[in-house]
Amino acid sequence: MMRGTQERLVQCSDPGITAVPISVPADTVKLRLEKTLISKVSRAAFYNLSELRFLWLTYNSITLIHPSSFVNLKAMRELRLDGNLLTSFPWEGLRDMPRLQTLGLHNNRLSSLPAHAALFLPNITYLDLSSNRLTILPAELLDLWFPLPGQSLHDNPWLCDCQISMLMSLSMTLGSTVVLMDQLLMCSKSLSQSELLQTQAELSRCMRPSVQPAATRVISPMGSNVILRCDATGYPTPTLTWIKTSTYTNCCQQDILDNSEQLPRILESFMQESPRVGVRWSIISLNGLSYKDAGEYRCQARNMAGISEALIKLKVMGITKLPHLPKKSRKISSKSPSKYRKPYQIPAITNAPSFLCVCYRADVMAVGKKRK
Predict the structure, then answer these.
(1) Distance (Å, rounded) from C-alpha 1 to C-alpha 21?
(2) Within 10 A of 346 (CB to CB), how many other CB atoms are there?
(3) If residue 302 lies in a helix (H) or strand (E), which one and from where to where?
(4) Strands (DSSP E) along 28-184, which ranges?
(5) Closest of 176, 195, 177 to residue 185, by C-alpha
(6) CA 255 to chain centre
(7) Which helix (H) or strand (E) holds 141?
């Protein structure tokens, strides 16, 4: 135990220690427990050390950390867990250390990073994940890391995909926050090869999708058939999805809205093909158009490098056929009781323009003219 003029440092490296000591002075600022037989960190293990700012639990035999191990460590700045046997880390436990800036997990056995880890890392300025068993990085972490925190990621069996390519690109820029000790990144697998050193040139083919629709605005008469098409490029070859995001109403708006489905809605019936690597096209067929088909459609392309989409607006024009009211089987005399009501008279429509739309229900009929 050492104490300076202002800060207390406690260091323990006794190989006989099997649990976190409970007799550490409450005013300890820096605690180092190294090369012991500690195998787990229990709940509230450091609760009495509210002034602790530096905690090193390095080169022990830790396999398990309770999610509430770090409760009451609001002053913590640096946590190092290098050289242990961790296969997972309780990322939600970082909420108890709101001022934490450095997190060291070098030389453990982490094989994956959950996407939710990004929720607890916004204040981390340096994260060391080197020498683990990681193969991929969640997109949520990449969004968080560009361009703020620094990371050390070398010496992992990476799957060389476009996300790793983005990290390699960033690591080669001046003043990069990503640390790759060797610019020849070793990958256990790649997009097209295995067990090879991947250079930036070999991964430079990764390209965010680009989408081009055959037309951005389509106007078609009611009852007709329409095909919407979009083409996408990118590497790896993107996949395409059609989504209807909104609907249009020209007349009888309430009737159409009452019968409309929940939007946005992913459309299932469409066709897509890839004539060659890096190119894919897709079409969706809409047969017997009605007003409910009108609206905005999005063609979305996705690959490991990102997402892109294009908007297509479809308008439906025309007139519906007027219904034939059923003929009465018998005439109703003028002396009939008042309970017999006179049938609704349909207004005659002559020389109707093509932009006139007629909507009807069983009990009421309305005629509307589209505004220019």
Answers:
(1) 13
(2) 14
(3) strand 295-303
(4) 28-33, 40-41, 54-56, 64-65, 78-80, 102-104, 126-128, 150-152, 158-160, 178-179
(5) 195
(6) 35
(7) helix 139-145
Distance, in Å, from the CA atom of 26 to the CA atom of 39, rounded to the nearest integer, reads 23
Read off the pLDDT of residues 169-217 as tens digits, 9 standing for 90 and up.
666 665 655 555 455 555 655 444 444 444 444 455 678 899 999 999 9
At 281, the amino acid letter reads: W
In the sheet with 271-276, reading across from the earlier edge strand, the strands are: 207-213, 226-235, 279-286, 271-276
The DSSP bridge partners found for residue 232 are 211, 280
DSSP 82: T
How many CB atoms lie under 10 A from the CB of residue 178? 21
Mean pLDDT of 122-149: 74
Contacts of 276 (CB under 8 A, 6+ apart): none
Q: How far apart are CA 107 and CA 8, in angstroms?
A: 28
Rounded to an integer, what distance in angstroms lies between the CA atom of residue 309 and that of residue 266? 13
Mean residue pLDDT across the chain: 77
